[in-house]
Amino acid sequence: MSCKVVLAQSISASYREELKNTVKDRNIRPKLVGFLANDDPAAAKYAEWTAKTCAETGIEFELRKCLRNELENKIVEANQDSAVHGIMVYYPVFGDRQDQYLQNVVDVGKDVEGLHHKYVYNMYHNIRFLDQAQTKKCIIPCTPLGLVKVMEYVGVYNGILPYGNRLHGRVVTIINRSEIVGRPLAALLANDGAKVYSVDINGIQEFHRGVGLKLKKHEVTETTLKIEDVLPLSDVVITGVPTPSYKVPSDLIRDGAVCINFSTFKNFDADEIKKKASIYVPAVGKVTVAMLERNLVRLYDYQIQESTV
Ligand code: NAD
């Protein structure tokens, strides 16, 4: 078997090193506040990782636990506190549209997760900067951004092509179309030039910028395709199905494909996928946390710039 297994630890190492050096060399101490208002063990684990990684990098992290009905006021307090540079919330809190409302209560200038409507809108519309002079990059949601970094690291992005078109010619299947990861990821990759098959329990959509990347931003079309049609065509297969029993059918994967799992559960049968894939990334959590910190430093800089204008 010639499959190379690439761990999130290796992918995130250079980002963590860069962050550590930035914080040390510039003698800054950006502060991130995380709000935990649920009993989800996965959220508690994520908070634990965030605390550990921030401590290693030199970023101040404070976990604030509260009741879900107190959360909105707690967020407003943190929005108004100039000692807090970044805010994140461990979702789901209410598990419905109220969570979407809370995402927009977080001050856009402190939203390290990039979940505020302004960032989400800009991402879908391929608007990459916050200002006309193009000095301030938009914040991109951490997990989709982390997956882009995974794909850059393993060489799916082609550095010879111009920025913004580096996935031209690549075919990617994403099994998950959640609003938090799968749909934004499909849009990001299609905006970068890929043809993306976005799979969910109800069917498959195609995200693309057309032949020769003639469109400035991606468009979406409905298809009648099935997973057995798209997997054999895909250079990259990314999966995030939150079910322990779900396994991507390895026999349908193209020989030499890049296979990436972001679900908490192992969506690929490790032994089987190693017989087919050229590269297998079993998990990405550490890259997500590195992106969270990177977004924090970016927002910290924007706040400093604004306070000195
Ligand atoms: P979700 O429940 O909101 O979405 C699940 C998606 O998978 C939906 O689009 C659904 O239609 C699709 N799906 C479910 N079963 C399917 C099937 N059999 N075939 C095709 N599609 C199917 O979940 P989510 O918030 O997107 O999280 C998904 C997983 O990713 C979870 O395990 C979560 O813990 C993990 N996650 C990891 C990170 C990270 O950084 N590693 C970040 C966020 C979420």
Structural commentary:
- With 309 residues, the protein is an alpha/beta fold.
- It folds into two domains: 24-108 and 286-309, 3-Layer(aba) Sandwich (Rossmann fold), CATH 3.40.50.10860; 144-277, Rossmann fold, CATH 3.40.50.720.
- Helix content is 39%, strand content 16%.
- It has helices at 8-25, 41-57, 71-80, 97-105, 117-124, 142-153, 182-191, 227-230, 270-276, 285-308; strands at residues 4-5, 31-36, 60-65, 86-89, 171-175, 195-200, 203-208, 219-222, 236-239, 258-261, 279-281.
- The protein has an eight-stranded mixed sheet, covered by helices on one side. The protein has a three-stranded parallel sheet with strand order 3-2-4, with helices on both faces.
- Strand 6 and strand 7 form a beta hairpin.
- Helix 6 (142-153) packs across helix 7 (182-191).
- The longest helix has 24 residues, at 285-308.
- The protein is globular, with a radius of gyration of 19 Å.
- The termini are far apart.
- The mean pLDDT is 96.
- Bound molecules: nicotinamide-adenine-dinucleotide.
- The site of nicotinamide-adenine-dinucleotide (NAD) has 25 residues, from helix 6, strand 6 and helix 10.
Q: Topology as H/E string?
A: EHEHEHEHHHEHEEEHEEHEH
CATH architecture classification of the largest domain:
3-Layer(aba) Sandwich
Helix content: 25-40%
Strand order of the largest sheet: 1-11-10-9-5-6-7-8
Number of helices: 10
Number of E strands = 11
* Mass-distribution shape: globular
Q: Say which molecules are bound, naming each kind only once.
A: nicotinamide-adenine-dinucleotide
Estimate what percentage of residues fall within beta strands.
15-25%
Main beta sheet, described? 8 strands, mixed
Structural class based on helices, strands and sheet pairing: alpha/beta
Radius of gyration: 19 Å
Could you say what the CATH topology of the largest domain is called?
Answer: Rossmann fold
Relevant CATH superfamily of the largest domain: NAD(P)-binding Rossmann-like Domain
Level-1 CATH class name of the largest domain? Alpha Beta
